[in-house]
Amino acid sequence: MPGLIRIATRESPLALWQAYHVRDRLLALGEGLSVELVPMTTQGDQLLGSPLSAIGGKGLFVKELEQAMLEGRADIAVHSMKDVPAQQPDGLCLSAFLAGEDPRDAFVSNTYGSLAELPQGAHVGTSSLRRQTQLRALRPDLAISPLRGNVGTRLRKLDEGQYDAILLAAAGLIRLGLHERIREALDVDAFVPAIGQGIVGIECRTADTATRATLDRLHDALTTQRLTAERALNARLGGACQVPVAGHARIADGQLHLKAVVGDPASSRMVRDEIRGPASDAAALGNTLAERLLDAGARAILQGLGVIA
Ligand SMILES: NCc1[nH]cc(CCC(=O)O)c1CC(=O)O
């Protein structure tokens, strides 16, 4: 049992909420642990104005946190799993996934009650290629423009009238106490969420067995199976974020149902497929679905983008 656990975290309100949440869960284990937050600014935070696809991807939001753990300045890092790349650096591992929050994307507007209510040509803000592609497929008439920044910044830009509506993860809004801003939670079948959306994960040093034993007690087994399928899919597809890849798994009665979409940002063509099987085969299901998507057209899209050879 470690005496002190130091949590590396970004300083955005959502990241801090997640870090405090993990701190509270650790303290609630009732083992006299001390827990400290080590807040830091990542390169990703400094570049929040630019599209993720242009600044080199989501790894930028976790690199400083990982460096702090590798240098012994922090013991664990708390992440939105959506922001965590497919592979972890040598010496670090993902050691616990907490039970997930709502995985859906949320339609947020001050004027319209749902995506269907948006008038022809309405202006929607989102920088996510995954959201843009699926939105275009559902509503080719909409005008979509980039929208970057923390959740609060994005809501402010909506409130200033820069957009008729925006799309955000329901989980982030719920965690920040802003659930009343959700006009409509988009059905996961019509609008497939990002891999890991709504799931908080904890990374630590692989060799730190004492901390890992403690983190084991926060671990949610079903969430882990769900995430295993989604991340296996993502890894096989090159794990890139300059590509619109959506993937969502749900589990009922030991059966896992994984759904995925790969889109071509250039042509707005989409390849979609789904697979079902025993939840205990989560990784294999993710792999198999990825292979099927590659053969059905995703290979050409990803090769065209230089994501896979
Ligand atoms: N890309 C930023 C990000 N990373 C995680 C969340 C939401 C919380 C989650 O998915 O767990 C968000 C905000 C958003 O997409 O609206």
Automatic annotation (TrEMBL):
Domain Porphobilinogen deaminase C-terminal: 225-294
GO terms for MF: hydroxymethylbilane synthase activity
Gene3D superfamilies to which the protein is assigned, alphabetical: Periplasmic binding protein-like II, Porphobilinogen deaminase, C-terminal domain
Pathway: Porphyrin-containing compound metabolism; protoporphyrin-IX biosynthesis; coproporphyrinogen-III from 5-aminolevulinate: step 2/4
Subunit structure comment from the entry: Monomer.
Family: Belongs to the HMBS family.
Stated name of the protein: Porphobilinogen deaminase
Species in which this protein is naturally found: Hydrocarboniphaga effusa AP103
